[in-house]
Design a protein that fits this description.
single chain; about 260 residues; mainly alpha; Arc Repressor Mutant, subunit A; elongated
Length: about 260
């Protein structure tokens, strides 16, 4: 056993096994020097405990890479116990140096990767689902006892019927699809050619600003009206790539005229 502990051992995960209890780096060092019988230790339990340590978000990526290298060494030493003994190659003295060079290169690569923005943490891809889920269905929770009492109350003869209360949804001054369709056709006649979708939104003056809800409805209704007109063959919708601006343009000729020309 080692008389002096290496401070670097404490930076590695703690492994608790039946025949060993200590840092992972110490276990690898004992296995290398054959001071511990690695064949008697459950390697699967070591990997499971290492996986729990790797899930810590506060641990740097370079340190996690060192832990994976240690686990790979354990698997290599364990596999050598299962293979027949072979004489060492002629250049066995160069192997430790090669391993150090390879480990230094792996650490440099891990440090470079750690400095880069991490996907899902520092940067986020467009079009990803929300972290809290995308289920928009309404869920109801009903108290069965209260429901039965309410149903029973409806069959009582002396219970007055509530016919005065009528539900009326609140009124919102929204921009309709019909208004957007009319506005698009007027602008297409006055300004033919490619125009961005924002050009077909209703005109807003400084004296009468548009409310946020009506502004959102104007964008949605204009897009719906453009899709309907494209379906009817009145105009074309253009978008070069995903999330690119949408442009509208009038068709050179109605779609039914093209069909007639093709049939002729």
């Amino acid at each position: 056993m080692h008389g002096v502990a290496d401070p670097a051992w404490e930076d590695t995960p703690h492994v608790a096994l039946a025949g060993f209890d200590g840092p992972l780096a110490l276990l690898v060092d004992l296995a290398r020097t054959r001071q511990i019988d690695l064949s008697q230790l459950p390697v699967a339990d070591i990997i499971d405990q290492l996986m729990l340590a790797l899930q810590a978000a506060s641990t740097p990526l370079s340190r996690k890479g060192d832990w994976v290298v240690l686990a790979a060494w354990l698997l290599l030493l364990r596999s050598r116990l299962l293979l027949p003994v072979e004489p060492p190659p002629p250049d066995a003295t160069e192997q430790p140096r090669d391993r150090r060079v390879a480990r230094a290169a792996a650490q440099a690569l891990a440090a470079w990767l750690e400095q880069r923005p991490q996907l899902g943490h520092d940067v986020f891809g467009r079009g990803q689902p929300e972290l809290l889920g995308t289920l928009a269905a309404t869920q109801y929770e009903v108290d069965v006892i209260e429901l039965l009492w309410a149903c029973a109350a409806q069959f009582e003869d002396d219970a007055p019927a509530d016919i005065a209360t009528v539900y009326r949804p609140s009124w919102h001054d929204l921009y309709s699809v019909l208004d957007a369709r009319t506005h698009i056709l007027q602008l297409l006649d006055a300004e033919p050619g490619h125009r961005p979708l924002e050009r077909f939104l209703p005109v807003v003056s400084a004296e009468e600003p548009m409310l946020p809800l009506r502004q959102r409805s104007a964008v949605a209704s204009t897009l719906m009206a453009g899709l309907e007109l494209a379906r009817d063959g009145v105009l074309r919708l253009h978008q070069l790539e995903a999330f690119a601006p949408i442009t509208l343009s009038a068709r050179a000729e109605p779609i039914h005229d093209q069909d007639s020309a093709a049939a002729a």
